[in-house]
Amino acid sequence: MMKKRFSVAAVLLAAATALAACSSGEQGGANNASGNNASNCTNTIPKKDLPVVTMWGWYPNMQLVVDNFNKRNGEVQVCWTNVGQGSDEYDKFQTAISAGTGAPDVIMIEMDRIPTFQIQEALVDIKQYGYDSVKADYGEGAWKDVSIGDAVYGVPVDGGPMAMIYRKDLFKKYDITPPKTWAEYEEAAQKMKDAGGPAFGDFAANVSALTMALQIQKGATPFTYDPAQPSTIGIKLNDQASKDVLDYWGRLAQKGLVGTEDQFTPEYISGVISGKYATYISAAWAPGYLSGAGVGKGEDTGKFAVAPLPQWDPDNPVQVNWGGSAFSVTSQAKNPELAAKVAYGLYADEESLTDGWTNQIIFPLNLKALNDPEFVDLKVDFFDGQQANKEVYVPAANAYEGMTYAPFGQYYFDAMTKQVSALIEGSGTGAQAADRIQQDVAAYAKEQGFTVR
After folding, report:
1. Rounded distance, CA 177 to CA 171, Å?
2. Is 23 or 403 the better-scoring residue by pLDDT?
3. Whole-Å CA distances, 108 to 80, 83, 90, 328, 329
4. Quick check: 7 pLDDT over 80?
5. What is the DSSP letter of 136?
């Protein structure tokens, strides 16, 4: 069975740590629908006579979201615990999967991690538990990102439609118009360099998900997977589109048109603040991340704007996504139907959604927020009052068609990081890097028991 074959998935998530106890806090209801421990919750449960569903999540405003749900719900209450963000949570979940106990009923999970846990039979297909009643609340691309085949393994909450953030002051100084194509992007980068300007952007080794998204925009389909054939996977990481994208960015780096510094570091942020980079190719969550890191404040105020992501083929535009999270029901939930009610209902009320986007915690995928005129017409302070949602992010989100993630996505990202690092250092071409990534990931898949096609 694939669950046994893929037991080494813990390697993908780093070494598993001992399952941490729930955070201490107010005592929850005694009528626990799942059988999991709901005696210790971070939140106070107001309706103690109702069944309780346990949940792990790390959104900064999760306390508000859970309280909103519990106040308005007359069927079930949520016992929430934050056991850590990202890999910290995944390590604990992996330990619970291996032990067969200790997982929550509902877990917040990044969309690209869903296949890793689904293939271990750790998540529940919730399509039978109310999907039809909420299907219209999200776009097709959002649903595809949380689905495997015809099964649905999560409720989308936030996403990362991509765009190009740029420095208005630098574009004005060097007489640059926001490029609409990647060919124009390279031309503008060369123009800025020839005039003695800074790097036009950054080609970093530690943002493999970004590189993958740009390859998909060019036409790549990295993975094809059907749960009806759980031991077979299609892997195409060295097709022409993938090679073209690596060759493109490798060329820009070798010509000195873009930097090659790792992103999400203090050094990189310092460079963004000081005008070391003219553009930042990123997702809709970037303004919140950047402003939280100190960008766009003080002397930086009012210097940033955003434009649509440059296209490879302007006659056939493709919108892509970087990041996003969902609520999934785990296979250890004793009452998956009740747990699904929680997954569907959390972060779905107007107050929670509004708090999320006004405080730049999430870019909402729920169409009630995505189509809300207040959200669409918002004048974003970080972009000096630009209506960034209307002009850029909402159209990109609406046009996004979704993608298929791999059940060993972290291994793939690590392989990409290794080869992009080599490319940046001058070891071969982008096409050769793509071939090495294909060889590495395909060999790994075969080791895990997959038939690769």
Report:
1. 7
2. 403
3. 11, 11, 10, 6, 9
4. no
5. G
Is 343 buried (19+), middle (13-18) or exposed (0-12) by CB count in 10 A? buried
Q: What share of the chain is helix, strand, coil (3-state, %, to 5)?
A: 45, 15, 40
Identify the burial level of 405 via C-beta atoms within 10 angstroms of its C-beta, where 0-12 means exposed, 13-18 middle and 19 or more buried.
Answer: buried
Q: Does 100 share its domain with 190?
A: no
Specify which residues 327 forms β-bridges with.
108, 155
- 272: domain CATH number is 3.40.190.10
Q: pLDDT by residue (tens digit) across 354-374?
A: 999 999 999 999 999 999 999
Give the pLDDT confidence score for residue 299 in this predicted structure. 87
Crossing angle, helix 409-424 and helix 240-254, to 10 degrees?
40
How many angstroms separate the CA atoms of 49 and 30, rounded? 8
Please, what is the average pLDDT of the chain?
91
The distance from CA 265 to its chain's CA centroid, rounded to whole angstroms, is 18
Same domain for 176 and 279: yes
Q: Does residue 160 carry a pLDDT above 70?
A: yes
For residue 31, give the 3-state DSSP assignment.
coil
Q: How many domains does the chain have?
A: 2
Give helix then strand counts, H and E, for the chain: 20, 14
Contacts with 240 (C-beta within 8 Å, 6 or more apart), sequence order: none
Residues 404-426: tens digit of each pLDDT? 999 999 999 999 999 999 999 99
Check whether residue 182 and residue 106 sit in a common domain.
Answer: no
* Closest-CA residue to 186 (of 139, 109, 252, 233): 252
- Nearest partner of 303 among 277, 268, 266, 265, judged by Cα: 277
Judged by DSSP in three states, 188 sits in helix
Q: Following CA atoms 212, 344, 71, 367 in sequence, which dihedral angle do they give, to the nearest 10 degrees?
A: 70
Does one domain contain both 344 and 309? Answer: no
Instruction: Let me know if 59 is exposed, middle or buried by CB neighbors in 10 A (0-12, 13-18, 19+).
Output: buried
What range does the domain containing 420 cover?
160-320+403-452
| Residue 102 Ramachandran class (φ > 0 left, ψ -120 to 50 alpha, else beta) | left
CB 347 within 8 A of CB 130: no
For residues 422 and 254, give the distance between their C-alpha atoms in angstroms, rounded to a whole number.
12
Mean of the pLDDT values across residues 76-89?
95
